[in-house]
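Course assignment 3, question 2. Fill in each field.
Student: A.L.
Task: Predict the tertiary structure for the chain below.
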Amino acid sequence: MRIAVLSDIHSNRAALEAVLAHSVAASPEWYVFLGDYVTDCPYPHKTVELLRTFAETHKCVFIRGNREDYILNNRNTPQGWTYGSKTGALKYTFENLTAEDLDWFASMPISMRVELPGAEPFTACHGSPEQSNYLFHADTPEAEQMIARQQTRLTLCGHSHIPFVFRRGDKLLVNPGALGMPVNNQTRAQYAMLEYNGCWQPEILSVEYDIEKTAAEFSQSGLLEKSRVWGRGLIGTIREGVNYTVMAVRLVEKMSRETGIPVTDEALWEAAAQELNIP
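Answer field:
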């Protein structure tokens, strides 16, 4: 039994196409998708179309991520998103998804116990089994607690954008890394392949893709204009593997506390971009 595990696509369709082609060559029996299919990169509906078409011919399990939760929450209770560095990418994503796309997200659980023929059950989630936006890393107290409380020997998770394989006794915690938005100082699309032969054997894989195709689509789609510094930071991330947007958010929040200027002010974002050398 072999399964491919993909997480954190973030609408990066070129990266997704490359990983699907790469993984199909290894003939996994199942694909497990761990959420964050959309937001950040252009043309989110095209990414959803690709995933749903792929699922018509391959056995797939889909888990909902925190980014899908953001979009669904905005459908239920509008969040007041506006174009600009703070929320422009979210607004763009919401406006470029269909009602059917959102219904598909809503049909997914945030975690599940997965039972596949020919393998022992495992747990799949985006952040944690209880919270789609729970963030932890390997070799931390949070990871220790996570792995200890699971009834399955294998837990799959995403969200951190950092790939890892974490073992404690007979238990295993695997994060395949970010397919569409890696932040571990490398720029290839990441995913995991796991083989079961009485126990799970994981491998983290990286795949080259056309980064400049994705970068060009930011301008072509209008997303770059609508998301401003955030969009420029995202292009920097896919080109360099550095988490510019998170660094920018933290710096803008710090400047806001020091000056009293709201975090939506574009002058703060431009100052942060300059300090972080975001083009």
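Instructor remarks: The radius of gyration is 19 Å. The first strand starts at residue 2 and ends at 6.
Grade: pending
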